[in-house]
Write a structure and sequence with these properties.
This is Polar amino acid transport system substrate-binding protein. The protein is of the alpha/beta class. The protein has eleven helices and twelve strands.
């Protein structure tokens, strides 16, 4: 199990690719089409821009992969409701899902996954008056901490800071309402969601991150991957493409384009 210090010192959101690594490019010349399946409602990963065009980090990543693998003519991107993605992949409506589906043992029995390319951290978000305080077991033990009940973040908080007795909330909206109202000093949750809320008008400049990001494969999963049907060459092709994008700095450029400064 990770320790708090190990979590803070993790390599960061963009999972590292050894630039000396070699990933052979499989032969996908016989693959007639590569249709990426995604969603519309998970910004900044997938969303419709002001002109109604499909945009986002994952959308640009899919297009960059097609360019790098020199298969632009075969590539298509289609948006579906999130709960239809797995069935669409199974029935061959699409060929690869790039939509932040969490990797589980059950899914691994049915599908293949590319290597992870991004992981989302957990963060503490605090009222401005306490945002500068250190994140230590002693400091947190005396603080009023909010977390959503029955989530990975509740389990992670308990494992890393067992002396904390948090205030539990049924959902993120209730937790953030309590933070803004001063009913708790700090909340613990998914860093990206907390970043966008704190920058929104709803937060009214009430809050700021406290301490650094926390990463944990045990609690937060392997990270963002591309899901494909089992036994097909696309996973190896995507692994090759992701390595090339990392080597060229394109993966980092996409990250800088879509994610708020200070999130990680």
């Amino acid at each position: 199990m990770d320790t708090p210090a190990a979590a803070v010192d993790a390599q960061g959101p963009l999972l590292t690719f050894d630039k000396r690594e070699h990933r052979a490019m499989p032969d996908i010349s016989t693959v007639p089409r590569i249709r990426f399946l995604t969603t519309l409602d998970f910004p900044p990963f997938e969303f419709l821009d002001a002109e109604g065009r499909l945009s986002g980090f994952n959308i640009d990543l899919a297009r960059e992969l097609c360019d790098t693998l020199e298969i632009q003519a075969k590539c298509q991107i289609q948006a579906l409701p999130f709960d239809e993605l797995q069935a669409a992949l199974e029935n061959r409506t699409g060929d690869a899902v790039i939509a932040g589906i969490g990797v589980t043992a059950a899914l691994r029995e049915k599908f293949d996954f590319s290597r992870p390319y991004l992981q989302l951290p957990a963060r503490f978000l605090a009222s401005k008056k306490t945002a500068g305080e250190a994140i230590t077991p002693m400091k947190l033990a005396s603080a009023r901490i909010g977390v959503v009940r029955d989530t990975a973040h509740q389990a992670m908080l308990k494992a890393y800071f067992p002396n904390v007795t948090p205030q539990l909330y049924d959902d993120r909206a209730a937790m953030l309402k309590a933070l803004k109202a001063g009913e708790v000093d700090t909340v613990f949750g998914e860093g990206l969601a907390l970043a966008f809320w704190s920058a929104s008008g709803e937060a009214d400049n009430c809050c700021a991150f406290r301490g650094g990001p926390f990463y944990s494969g045990d609690f937060l999963g392997e990270g963002m991957t591309i899901m494909t049907r089992s036994g097909e060459p696309l996973t190896a092709a995507f692994d090759h493409g992701l390595l090339e994008l990392a080597r060229k700095g394109i993966l980092n450029e996409l990250f800088v384009k879509y994610f708020p400064p200070g999130l990680f």
